[in-house]
Structure formats: C-alpha cells, structure tokens
C-alpha cells in the first residue's frame, strides 16, 4: 500500500468521522434494572443511531461503545463540577481516565464533553453558577494538554430557561437577567474554543406547566396559528424557541456560535398530555421537520439534535412530574413503544433490543379474598408506590382506568418486580398473593410488566447472571473436577 493510498484512507476515515450526522439519542442510566451495555449498543447499531449523549462516564457503557464509530458526548455530573473546576489536577485526572484512556485503548469515538447538566436551572438556586466556567475551562485545558483538544470539544447542556424573550417574539431573545454575566462569559469561552452551545428544548413542559399553552403549537403539523415576528412566521414552538436563543447569541456578538439541541422529546405516560399518540406525533414530526436540513429562519442550517431519550428510567426523580420516567422511545426492556421512522433503518421501523433476559412470568396482585377496606391496604400501597413506580396510575395515564383492586395490584406488582420477584416482596400482610395469571387488562395500554434480569457491576466491569467472569467460571470448574475425582 503506497503512502498516497494510506493518506487517502486516513482522509476518508477522518471525513467520515467528522461528517456523521443524523439523529442522536440520550442514554440515561437512572433505572433499577439496566439492559447490558452490549445489548443497548447492538440496538443502537441496528437502528442506525450514530450519536449518543451520556450523563456521566460509565466505564461499562464507554467500553461497549468502543470500535463502533458511534459519536459520544460524555458527561460530567453537576456534583463533580466543584472538584474539576477547583483543581486542574482533578480535571486532568478526569480527562485521562474518562476520555483519553477510552480513546487510546478502545477506540471510543468521544467528540464532546458535556460539562454539567443544566447547571443553571432555577431549582439549583445558583449553586453551580460560579463553578461551571472554571470547570469548563479546566476540562478544555486538560483536553488540549492531553493532545485531543481539536478532536474532543467541551460544551454545557443548558435548559432553555437561560434565555427569554422580552416581548414574546424570538427577536426579543436575550439571556436571563439574573445570570446574564455568567452566561456571557460561558458563551464567549465556547466561541473562543470553537465549541458549540447546547440547549434542551421541551414543548411538552410548556404544555404541562401552562394550561393556556396552545396544544397545536407544540407540534409540527402546521395547524397552529403562527407567531408573526416582524414578518417571519413561526408555526411551532421549537423553531421559535431555538431562534430566541439565536437572537440572544447574535445580540451579544455570537451570531455564528453553533447550536446543538441536547435534549428534545415527548414522554408517553404519567400525565394526560404524555401518551403514545402525542409522543409519536411530536417525535415523528420533529424528525420530518429537520430531515430537509433547512433549519430555522435564524439558523437555516441542518439541526444537530439528540432525542430524549433512548430508554425509560424508573428511578428518575418525579419532582418535575410523573412523566419523568417515561421519556424513552423504547420501554425499559428495549421494546418498541410506537412506530417511529428515524430515517436510519431500511424498513423505516425501530428495531427492539435482542436477547433480553426476563424474570419468570409471575406477578404479585391483591389477594382476591382481601377486602378493599382492610386497613393494611392503604399502608401497603403507599409503601410500594414510595419505593417502586406508580407513575402509570392516575388521571389520563396508561393505567388510569384500573378499578380500585387493579390499582392496588399494580402497586404491589411494581414493588415485587423491582425487587426481582423476591417472595418477601409480595408479603403485604394478608392482602397480596403471587400469581402466574397475567393481570394486564385486555383493553387499553396498561401493562403489568415482568422485570428484566438484573445486571451487576463489579470493579468497573459489569456482568449479567448468564455471563460470569472467567475467573469465577474457572474456580467453579476446578471445584467440580475435584468433586468428580473424589
Ligand atoms: C470518571 O467518571 C466517573 C463517572 O462519572 C467518576 O465516578 C470518576 O470519578 C471519574 N474519574 C476521575 C478520575 O475523575
Ligand atoms: C433552593 O432554595 C429553596 C428555598 O430557599 C430550598 O427549599 C431548596 O432546597 C434549595 N434547593 C437547593 C438545590 O439548594
Ligand atoms: C467569536 O469567534 C470568532 C471566530 O473564532 C471571532 O472572530 C469573534 O470575534 C468571536 N466573537 C466574540 C464576540 O468574541
Ligand atoms: C387508582 O389510583 C389513582 C392514583 O393513585 C387514583 O387517582 C384513582 O382514583 C384510583 N382509582 C380507584 C378506582 O381507586
Ligand atoms: C392475617 O389473617 C389471619 C386470619 O385471617 C389473622 O389471624 C392474622 O392476624 C392476619 N394478620 C395480619 C398481619 O393482619
């Protein structure tokens, strides 16, 4: 092979790596039962998904992403900002361990480090306001020092509430006054280091928090009354919101700073507006909306976006609302929720996870003989719901039409499944029983799920029950041989 061929190959590879586009996904891990990383990575590949965004630097997940070419945005959680922002050494260690090592030893295609996650949310009371920029700056310096500064860029995923419009039109956009100075410093830093601005945009939350929000304006069908911003018409909230940011950037001298949409999506349960129909309509609408690459009026360039999210997470905080545990385009077990064409598979359909290991087909339900007014019932339900997941119960949710017994059984079963079907987890005093008859109602979307096999992590490595680590297998084999010889 001549040097020209080699050069061409390198150039081609480089172009390929740099030109990866298409839709990305957020891969979160706040779940009681995670699918094995290899299973998820296979699912990503089969679905043609070329970009993932992570919320930390999970060793097992990064390992599974090695040699796949999938672009990775790896995250630094907010609670680590003080440490990497306060010490250059800590930042260097973080980069060495969580970026460099994965790139050099396992060819993980890490392209971005997300420094913090929505650190300026009002609910944090400014806790991260003055530590985010130092963290960003230290990580950037550490990347340069490690020789990967041009390959791996820094960014800060921010909630869309860091900016607002003074007059409800995108053209009135500017940064929130209480965080104006820190925002400007961050934007300047991103601009100077050739890094993108990352924003999370949620029309669902607008609809959830404001009962007067025009429903149609959340979607992309063009049925909403457009917003007329000095002659520019906005038919959906997404475009208007992104352009509010574009105006804010332009107003402050950063009109060319690239924008990444870090999170966008719609939940399928836990609220009257969170359902399969709306989620499909929103996500499919979004995919069609960006597929032409025409962008928004202010930013007529292809939109770089990550769907929120890949898989449901049953341990997310429900402080923002019960919908929080239902953002996935896949259920917790990697099964498809609804038809969604990402434009990345031949069939145009989503492909579910393969080889998923489930627990036995059994459920914990309310004992048929137990009376509804048994004083143990209410107490047991609130205990079960507190520790497991009852976000599919309630007005307008998937299991919202269950009768009182169905409700109670749902709560018991959730607790039982989350606890790996331990017999002890179905011993609500005299009111529960284990059954092999599926209690799932025959009509509607309500599901009484069977949990997946737990997947354990040990010393930075993860292994499933069926995949014991080699040393353990050898020891067992040795033991067996000894017994046979005796
Ligand atoms: C690497 O990332 C993990 C996961 O976020 C974190 O727990 C660990 O402390 C990081 N390592 C270093 C050396 O900072
Ligand atoms: C923010 O402040 C409020 C009111 O002072 C308090 O209730 C809340 O716990 C604080 N949150 C954080 C994350 O510090
Ligand atoms: C942003 O970066 C560009 C190019 O890197 C530079 O020309 C411009 O002056 C920067 N803008 C500001 C306001 O610093
Ligand atoms: C079932 O539970 C939900 C949520 O806890 C409650 O709103 C609903 O009223 C209950 N339904 C019945 C029939 O008890
Ligand atoms: C369970 O029921 C039995 C008989 O119906 C009764 O003797 C016992 O006290 C009950 N136990 C509890 C904890 O309610």
Automatic annotation (TrEMBL):
GO BP, one example? defense response
Please name one Pfam family that this protein belongs to: X8
Keyword Transmembrane attributed? no
User: What membrane topology term does the record carry?
Assistant: Lipid-anchor; GPI-anchor
InterPro entries assigned? GH, Glyco_hydro_17, Glyco_hydro_17_plant, X8
Q: Which reaction does it catalyse?
A: Hydrolysis of (1->3)-beta-D-glucosidic linkages in (1->3)-beta-D-glucans
| UniProt-listed Enzyme Commission number(s) | 3.2.1.39
- Top-level taxon: Eukaryota
Ranges for domain X8: 362-448
Chain ranges passing through the membrane: none
Instruction: Tell me where it mainly resides.
Output: membrane
Q: Which GO terms describe its molecular function?
A: glucan endo-1,3-beta-D-glucosidase activity
In which compartments does the protein localize?
Cell membrane
Signal peptide start-end: 1-22
Q: What class of enzyme is it?
A: hydrolase
Question: Which keywords annotate this record?
Answer: Cell membrane, Disulfide bond, Glycoprotein, Glycosidase, GPI-anchor, Hydrolase, Lipoprotein, Membrane, Plant defense, Signal
Q: State the similarity comment.
A: Belongs to the glycosyl hydrolase 17 family.
Specify the protein name. Answer: glucan endo-1,3-beta-D-glucosidase
Say which species the protein is native to. Gossypium lobatum
